[in-house]
Amino acid sequence: MTWISANLDFILSLTWRHIALASPVVLLSLLISVPLGRLANATGWGRRLIVGGSSLLYAIPSLAVFVILPGLVGTKILDPLNVVIALTLYGVALLTRSASEAFDAVDDELLTAATAQGHSAWQRFWRVELPLAGESLLAGTRVVSASTLSLVSVGALIGVQSLGTLFTEGYARSFVTEIVVGIVGTVILAVVFDLVLVALAALLMPWTRRAKVRKASGRRRSSQDTTTTALATVPDLAVQEGRR
Protein backbone atom coordinates (compact mmCIF):
# COMPACT_ATOMS: atom_id res chain seq x y z
CA MET A 1 0.00 0.00 0.00
CA THR A 2 2.90 2.35 0.70
CA TRP A 3 4.18 1.95 -2.86
CA ILE A 4 0.69 2.50 -4.28
CA SER A 5 0.10 5.71 -2.32
CA ALA A 6 3.58 7.00 -3.20
CA ASN A 7 3.06 6.32 -6.93
CA LEU A 8 -0.68 7.02 -7.23
CA ASP A 9 -0.21 9.89 -9.70
CA PHE A 10 1.95 7.66 -11.92
CA ILE A 11 -0.63 4.84 -11.79
CA LEU A 12 -3.49 7.21 -12.66
CA SER A 13 -1.45 8.67 -15.53
CA LEU A 14 -0.85 5.19 -16.95
CA THR A 15 -4.54 4.37 -16.50
CA TRP A 16 -5.60 7.40 -18.54
CA ARG A 17 -3.06 6.50 -21.22
CA HIS A 18 -4.48 2.99 -21.31
CA ILE A 19 -8.00 4.37 -21.74
CA ALA A 20 -6.85 6.82 -24.42
CA LEU A 21 -5.31 3.97 -26.41
CA ALA A 22 -8.18 1.49 -26.03
CA SER A 23 -11.21 3.75 -26.54
CA PRO A 24 -10.61 4.74 -30.19
CA VAL A 25 -9.71 1.15 -31.02
CA VAL A 26 -13.07 -0.19 -29.83
CA LEU A 27 -14.98 2.59 -31.60
CA LEU A 28 -13.07 2.28 -34.89
CA SER A 29 -13.33 -1.51 -34.84
CA LEU A 30 -17.11 -1.29 -34.61
CA LEU A 31 -17.45 1.43 -37.27
CA ILE A 32 -15.28 -0.48 -39.74
CA SER A 33 -16.55 -3.99 -39.00
CA VAL A 34 -20.27 -3.25 -39.44
CA PRO A 35 -20.06 -2.31 -43.16
CA LEU A 36 -17.46 -5.02 -43.76
CA GLY A 37 -19.68 -7.62 -42.11
CA ARG A 38 -22.68 -6.47 -44.13
CA LEU A 39 -20.64 -6.54 -47.35
CA ALA A 40 -19.30 -10.00 -46.52
CA ASN A 41 -22.84 -11.24 -45.99
CA ALA A 42 -24.01 -9.91 -49.37
CA THR A 43 -22.19 -12.51 -51.48
CA GLY A 44 -20.69 -15.94 -50.88
CA TRP A 45 -17.29 -15.10 -52.33
CA GLY A 46 -17.24 -11.82 -50.41
CA ARG A 47 -17.80 -13.64 -47.16
CA ARG A 48 -15.01 -16.09 -47.85
CA LEU A 49 -12.63 -13.30 -48.82
CA ILE A 50 -13.41 -10.80 -46.05
CA VAL A 51 -14.02 -13.17 -43.15
CA GLY A 52 -11.19 -15.48 -44.19
CA GLY A 53 -8.79 -12.56 -44.60
CA SER A 54 -9.71 -11.09 -41.23
CA SER A 55 -9.18 -14.45 -39.52
CA LEU A 56 -5.74 -14.69 -41.10
CA LEU A 57 -4.90 -11.17 -39.91
CA TYR A 58 -5.81 -12.03 -36.32
CA ALA A 59 -3.30 -14.90 -36.38
CA ILE A 60 -0.33 -12.49 -36.71
CA PRO A 61 1.45 -11.93 -33.34
CA SER A 62 0.73 -8.47 -31.94
CA LEU A 63 4.35 -7.68 -31.06
CA ALA A 64 5.42 -8.36 -34.64
CA VAL A 65 2.76 -5.94 -35.91
CA PHE A 66 3.91 -3.25 -33.45
CA VAL A 67 7.47 -3.55 -34.76
CA ILE A 68 6.64 -3.73 -38.49
CA LEU A 69 3.89 -1.09 -38.58
CA PRO A 70 6.08 2.05 -38.18
CA GLY A 71 7.94 1.16 -41.37
CA LEU A 72 4.66 0.73 -43.25
CA VAL A 73 2.85 3.89 -42.13
CA GLY A 74 5.87 6.15 -41.58
CA THR A 75 5.44 6.73 -37.84
CA LYS A 76 8.04 6.58 -35.07
CA ILE A 77 8.23 3.32 -33.18
CA LEU A 78 7.25 4.99 -29.89
CA ASP A 79 4.25 6.74 -31.44
CA PRO A 80 1.03 5.61 -29.66
CA LEU A 81 -0.67 5.75 -33.07
CA ASN A 82 1.08 2.47 -33.91
CA VAL A 83 -0.74 0.75 -31.06
CA VAL A 84 -4.09 2.25 -32.09
CA ILE A 85 -3.69 1.17 -35.73
CA ALA A 86 -2.44 -2.32 -34.87
CA LEU A 87 -5.15 -3.02 -32.33
CA THR A 88 -7.82 -1.62 -34.64
CA LEU A 89 -6.72 -4.17 -37.23
CA TYR A 90 -7.09 -6.90 -34.62
CA GLY A 91 -10.45 -5.55 -33.50
CA VAL A 92 -11.74 -5.46 -37.07
CA ALA A 93 -10.43 -8.98 -37.67
CA LEU A 94 -12.26 -10.22 -34.58
CA LEU A 95 -15.52 -8.30 -35.03
CA THR A 96 -16.02 -8.71 -38.79
CA ARG A 97 -16.95 -12.38 -38.44
CA SER A 98 -19.41 -11.56 -35.65
CA ALA A 99 -20.95 -8.79 -37.75
CA SER A 100 -21.32 -11.07 -40.76
CA GLU A 101 -23.01 -13.75 -38.65
CA ALA A 102 -25.27 -11.14 -37.01
CA PHE A 103 -26.56 -9.87 -40.35
CA ASP A 104 -26.87 -13.43 -41.65
CA ALA A 105 -29.17 -14.26 -38.72
CA VAL A 106 -31.72 -11.59 -39.72
CA ASP A 107 -34.90 -13.28 -40.98
CA ASP A 108 -35.21 -13.07 -44.78
CA GLU A 109 -38.98 -12.71 -44.50
CA LEU A 110 -38.55 -9.48 -42.54
CA LEU A 111 -36.22 -8.12 -45.21
CA THR A 112 -38.70 -9.08 -47.93
CA ALA A 113 -41.52 -7.40 -46.01
CA ALA A 114 -39.46 -4.23 -45.60
CA THR A 115 -38.73 -4.15 -49.33
CA ALA A 116 -42.43 -4.71 -50.10
CA GLN A 117 -43.29 -1.71 -47.94
CA GLY A 118 -41.11 0.49 -50.11
CA HIS A 119 -37.91 0.65 -48.07
CA SER A 120 -34.77 1.32 -50.07
CA ALA A 121 -31.69 -0.82 -49.44
CA TRP A 122 -30.24 1.96 -47.25
CA GLN A 123 -33.47 2.37 -45.26
CA ARG A 124 -33.78 -1.37 -44.84
CA PHE A 125 -30.25 -1.53 -43.45
CA TRP A 126 -30.80 1.25 -40.89
CA ARG A 127 -34.37 0.41 -39.90
CA VAL A 128 -34.42 -3.38 -40.06
CA GLU A 129 -31.05 -5.11 -40.41
CA LEU A 130 -28.94 -3.04 -38.03
CA PRO A 131 -31.49 -2.98 -35.17
CA LEU A 132 -32.07 -6.74 -35.43
CA ALA A 133 -28.32 -7.44 -35.56
CA GLY A 134 -27.62 -5.01 -32.73
CA GLU A 135 -27.59 -7.50 -29.87
CA SER A 136 -25.10 -9.81 -31.61
CA LEU A 137 -22.95 -6.82 -32.55
CA LEU A 138 -22.92 -5.78 -28.90
CA ALA A 139 -21.71 -9.22 -27.85
CA GLY A 140 -18.89 -9.06 -30.40
CA THR A 141 -17.95 -5.52 -29.35
CA ARG A 142 -17.70 -6.60 -25.72
CA VAL A 143 -15.24 -9.32 -26.74
CA VAL A 144 -13.21 -6.79 -28.75
CA SER A 145 -13.20 -4.42 -25.78
CA ALA A 146 -11.79 -7.04 -23.40
CA SER A 147 -9.24 -8.19 -25.98
CA THR A 148 -8.13 -4.63 -26.74
CA LEU A 149 -7.63 -3.67 -23.10
CA SER A 150 -5.45 -6.73 -22.70
CA LEU A 151 -3.40 -6.16 -25.86
CA VAL A 152 -2.78 -2.47 -25.10
CA SER A 153 -0.44 -3.70 -22.37
CA VAL A 154 1.77 -5.38 -24.98
CA GLY A 155 2.62 -1.92 -26.34
CA ALA A 156 4.71 -1.36 -23.20
CA LEU A 157 7.26 -3.81 -24.63
CA ILE A 158 8.12 -1.27 -27.35
CA GLY A 159 7.99 1.71 -24.99
CA VAL A 160 4.38 2.93 -25.39
CA GLN A 161 3.24 3.67 -21.85
CA SER A 162 0.08 2.12 -20.41
CA LEU A 163 -0.76 -0.07 -17.44
CA GLY A 164 1.46 -2.61 -19.18
CA THR A 165 4.40 -0.42 -18.12
CA LEU A 166 3.79 -1.66 -14.58
CA PHE A 167 4.24 -5.23 -15.86
CA THR A 168 7.54 -4.55 -17.60
CA GLU A 169 9.00 -2.44 -14.80
CA GLY A 170 7.76 -4.86 -12.15
CA TYR A 171 9.33 -7.84 -13.90
CA ALA A 172 12.57 -5.93 -14.46
CA ARG A 173 12.82 -5.15 -10.75
CA SER A 174 11.19 -8.40 -9.53
CA PHE A 175 8.64 -6.22 -7.73
CA VAL A 176 5.42 -8.20 -7.37
CA THR A 177 3.30 -5.31 -6.05
CA GLU A 178 3.81 -3.29 -9.23
CA ILE A 179 2.87 -6.26 -11.40
CA VAL A 180 -0.28 -6.97 -9.37
CA VAL A 181 -1.36 -3.31 -9.57
CA GLY A 182 -1.01 -3.44 -13.35
CA ILE A 183 -3.04 -6.65 -13.60
CA VAL A 184 -5.79 -5.47 -11.25
CA GLY A 185 -5.95 -2.09 -13.01
CA THR A 186 -6.36 -3.75 -16.41
CA VAL A 187 -9.11 -6.05 -15.10
CA ILE A 188 -10.96 -3.12 -13.53
CA LEU A 189 -10.79 -1.18 -16.80
CA ALA A 190 -12.12 -4.21 -18.70
CA VAL A 191 -15.10 -4.43 -16.33
CA VAL A 192 -15.77 -0.67 -16.56
CA PHE A 193 -15.61 -0.71 -20.38
CA ASP A 194 -18.00 -3.67 -20.44
CA LEU A 195 -20.49 -1.92 -18.15
CA VAL A 196 -20.31 1.22 -20.30
CA LEU A 197 -21.00 -0.79 -23.46
CA VAL A 198 -23.99 -2.50 -21.84
CA ALA A 199 -25.34 0.85 -20.63
CA LEU A 200 -24.93 2.42 -24.08
CA ALA A 201 -26.66 -0.56 -25.68
CA ALA A 202 -29.59 -0.21 -23.28
CA LEU A 203 -29.82 3.47 -24.21
CA LEU A 204 -29.44 3.04 -27.98
CA MET A 205 -31.36 -0.26 -28.28
CA PRO A 206 -34.23 -0.03 -25.77
CA TRP A 207 -36.21 -2.67 -27.67
CA THR A 208 -33.77 -5.38 -26.54
CA ARG A 209 -34.42 -4.49 -22.91
CA ARG A 210 -38.19 -4.61 -23.45
CA ALA A 211 -37.86 -7.99 -25.16
CA LYS A 212 -35.95 -9.37 -22.18
CA VAL A 213 -38.61 -8.04 -19.81
CA ARG A 214 -41.35 -9.71 -21.88
CA LYS A 215 -39.45 -13.00 -21.89
CA ALA A 216 -38.94 -12.86 -18.12
CA SER A 217 -42.62 -12.00 -17.64
CA GLY A 218 -43.62 -14.88 -19.89
CA ARG A 219 -41.47 -17.30 -17.91
CA ARG A 220 -43.02 -16.10 -14.64
CA ARG A 221 -46.54 -16.51 -16.02
CA SER A 222 -45.68 -19.98 -17.29
CA SER A 223 -44.29 -20.91 -13.88
CA GLN A 224 -47.37 -19.53 -12.13
CA ASP A 225 -49.69 -21.43 -14.49
CA THR A 226 -47.80 -24.65 -13.84
CA THR A 227 -47.99 -24.13 -10.08
CA THR A 228 -51.72 -23.34 -10.27
CA THR A 229 -52.38 -26.46 -12.33
CA ALA A 230 -50.40 -28.58 -9.90
CA LEU A 231 -52.28 -27.19 -6.90
CA ALA A 232 -55.60 -27.71 -8.66
CA THR A 233 -54.87 -31.40 -9.12
CA VAL A 234 -54.17 -31.97 -5.43
CA PRO A 235 -57.86 -32.16 -4.37
CA ASP A 236 -58.64 -34.53 -7.25
CA LEU A 237 -55.78 -36.79 -6.23
CA ALA A 238 -56.95 -36.71 -2.62
CA VAL A 239 -60.49 -37.69 -3.64
CA GLN A 240 -59.20 -40.54 -5.78
CA GLU A 241 -57.00 -41.75 -2.93
CA GLY A 242 -59.99 -41.65 -0.54
CA ARG A 243 -62.10 -43.73 -2.91
CA ARG A 244 -59.40 -46.38 -3.04
From TrEMBL:
Q: Which domain of life is it from?
A: Bacteria
Keyword list, A-Z? Membrane, Transmembrane, Transmembrane helix, Transport
Query: Known Gene3D superfamilies for this protein?
Result: MetI-like (1.10.3720.10)
Q: Which GO terms describe its biological process?
A: glycine betaine transport; transmembrane transport
Q: Note one Pfam family from the annotation.
A: BPD_transp_1
Could you tell me the membrane topology recorded for this protein?
Multi-pass membrane protein
Where does the sequence pass through the membrane?
16-37, 49-71, 77-95, 143-167, 179-205
ABC transmembrane type-1 domain residues: 15-205
UniProt lists the family membership as follows: Belongs to the binding-protein-dependent transport system permease family.
**Name the UniProt record assigns to this protein:** ABC transporter permease subunit
**Upper taxonomic lineage:** Bacteria, Bacillati, Actinomycetota, Actinomycetes, Micrococcales
